[in-house]
Design a protein that fits this description.
Elements lengths: L1 E12 L5 E11 L3 E5 L6 H8 L7 E10 L2 E2 L5 H10 L1 E4 L13 H10 L6 H14 L5 H5 L8 H15 L3 E5 L7 H18 L2 E6 L2 H7 L2 E6 L2 E7 H6 L4 H18 L1
Parallel strand pairs: 3-8, 3-9, 6-7, 7-8
Antiparallel strand pairs: 1-2, 1-4, 4-5, 9-10
Helix pairs in contact: 4-6, 6-7
Length: about 260
């Protein structure tokens, strides 16, 4: 069963009409992890941003539909779109520090976020978020919640974003290169947490990445993008065992050749 379907999506720059995404078609299967893979400029992030209605200024979707639970997201009012973001779809970005106010402690920011969508008293929130943080192996959660974003590492901020996602209980989590700026230990931990969310909470995950190592670790389904076009898609097993496009083969070979070189 598909929770989200992208149909004929075209994204352009307003000024010069440059096509950033061209006639994209794919589905996101409910309760699975789908990875959109491609190099910088492939259109993968623009595709994800169109799903949450956050395309940058001067860029817009000019054709197509994005169907979520039978409704076209492009027809949503501003109010409905605001409620949709966070409550139905939660986004985790590469640089989590940009998602937090540096002058407000973590507890207040996460509580304000959940109160913008749900009614929850402070005591219930504190009990729940602390329990969630312990479940994802965040030590001393009471201390972390009283700290400011700049006091936490990039890996810790990503874990706090994951805790925020869990407490929001969205239908889909969109993770845009969430491990790129992290050390290897933190990368592994973030991927494990996303897999746990899928397995224990049946949450759907859309992962944006350039790294086939991440795909091998986490994906159920894969979409390959190049120059704004979807050139291949399938299950992770089909993509790795029988890639049809030369570009897909190059991406796979480049990733695992690099890993072997790093080990040597």
């Amino acid at each position: 069963m598909n929770i989200l379907e992208v149909k004929g999506l075209k994204i352009e720059e307003d000024q010069n009409k440059k096509i950033l995404v061209n006639n994209a078609d794919f589905e996101i299967e409910k309760g699975k992890i789908t990875c959109i893979v491609g190099e910088s400029g492939s259109g993968k992030t623009m595709t994800a941003m169109s799903i949450i209605g956050m395309l940058p200024e001067g860029v817009k979707a000019t054709k197509g539909k994005i169907i979520f639970n039978g409704e076209n997201i492009f027809s949503f009012s501003k109010e409905k779109l605001r409620n949709f973001r966070g409550k139905k779809i939660f986004s985790i970005f590469q640089n989590s520090i940009n998602c937090f106010n540096p002058s407000v402690i973590m507890e207040t920011q996460i509580y304000d976020m959940i109160c913008s969508h749900y009614n929850m008293d402070k005591k219930s929130f504190q009990e729940r978020i602390i329990n969630i943080m312990r479940n994802i192996n965040l030590k001393k959660p009471e201390v972390l919640l009283k700290q400011y974003p700049f006091q936490l590492s990039g890996g810790m901020l990503q874990r706090m974003m994951i805790a925020s996602a869990i407490i929001m209980e969205p239908d889909i989590i969109i993770a845009d290169e969430p491990t790129t700026a992290l050390d290897l230990v933190s990368q592994k931990d973030i991927l494990n947490q996303l897999k746990m969310i899928k397995e224990k909470l049946s949450t759907t995950v859309l992962m944006i990445t350039h790294d086939f190592g991440v795909v091998a670790e986490i994906a159920d389904n894969v979409v390959i993008m190049r120059n704004g076009n979807i050139i291949e898609r399938g299950t992770v097993y089909n993509i790795f065992d029988n890639p049809k496009e030369d570009y897909t083969k190059i991406l796979i070979d480049a990733t695992f050749k690099r890993e072997v070189t790093d080990v040597c």
